[in-house]
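Notes from the pairing session

We agreed to fold both candidates in a single pass and log them together. This is the raw record for the first candidate, unedited. Please don't reformat it; downstream parsing expects exactly this layout.

Candidate A
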Amino acid sequence: MKVRELAVPGALEFTPDVHADHRGRFLELLRAEWWHEAIGRALPVAQVNCSVNHRGVVRGVHFTGLPGQAKFVTCLAGALVDVIVDTRAGSPSFGVHDTVLLDENTHKIVFLPEGVGHGIASLADGTTAFYLCSDTYDPANEFGVHPLDEDLGIDWRGLLAGSEPILSTRDSTAPAVAAARRAGLFPAYTKCLRLYQEGPS
């Protein structure tokens, strides 16, 4: 397993060792000790999510308030680009984003700490995203910003080879970054750091 830190501090890319032979492939997606070695803390798995997507679908940019969900995201079928965005108010890298290609061949995994947002762009019909979440879904603690907001600077159409992104009603009516900032939706960076060090209170 190889680990790489992304442009958003605290977000990580895991590349597992894939063992292939005439039968197919085998790999270990996650081990508890990998989390602890890379992140410095143990994380429970409280919920497992799976989304199956048509080509051109964009989901996000979504994030949670605190304590919120840390997430491990991988792709079981097809291919997607995971776009990781620093949505922590007061972070030196607030608004910075990075991208990781997740597909059924490399089986890479993205780790998103609490407070960090992300969105996915599906590159093929049937693309299946698989999430391990450290806490259960709480609709009152779920937030998002419009993925096409120019302040984010994400070239979704470029990621989709020129296709128009397919958005849900929720995402197409999500607030712009400036409006979300004025409304105080973004979790505070200092509180995120404290959570990472001390765990949920």
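Candidate B (folded immediately after A)
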Amino acid sequence: MSLVGKKAPIFSAPAVINGEEIVEGFSLDQYIGKKDVVFFFYPKDFTFVCPTEILAFQEKLGEFEKRGVAVVAASCDTEESHLAWLMTPKNQGGIEGVTYPVVADTAKTIAHNYGVLAGDWNYNEEGNLTFEGAPIAYRGTFLIDKEGTVRQETINDLPLGRNIDEMIRLVDALHHVEKYGEVCPANWEEGKEAMKATKDGVADYLSKN
């Protein structure tokens, strides 16, 4: 089920911050009342599509930060695996230079609670607990506001990389709605006209566009 409109699931887990330091008990609660958060999951460390996304978020990190948005990544790998990957040069398949937090969801509970785990536990005929599917996360992305409420989510299948510029557009749309009380129509971008959430407002917008 969608998390949109609901409080983001709470967690406390190890993470690598600043690309070099492992911390215990990392939580998104630290941003409540202070920053919006783009929280995204990726399948696995040391893979192929994942570094392109992780590095793309880093390249756009300044755009998120100037909008008061924290970027946080997570996968079901260990914090030690994260750190090793973060210390591997890009030309060797690594993600060296990434500075935003990368959470280690080794218990897979965070991915499960966010609805992005690419499989689930079940019991076989012998009564043994098994895992059906892939024990890794889909490419889930969640925009969480300062109150800790999920305002947008997208979940991509494992081979489908996401568009980082679209996340910036959605952040801009959220901020516009919060600031002006208007709603953002299809393909809205910062600087374009939005509209009032009334029949007259819609009619006025459509007549101009």
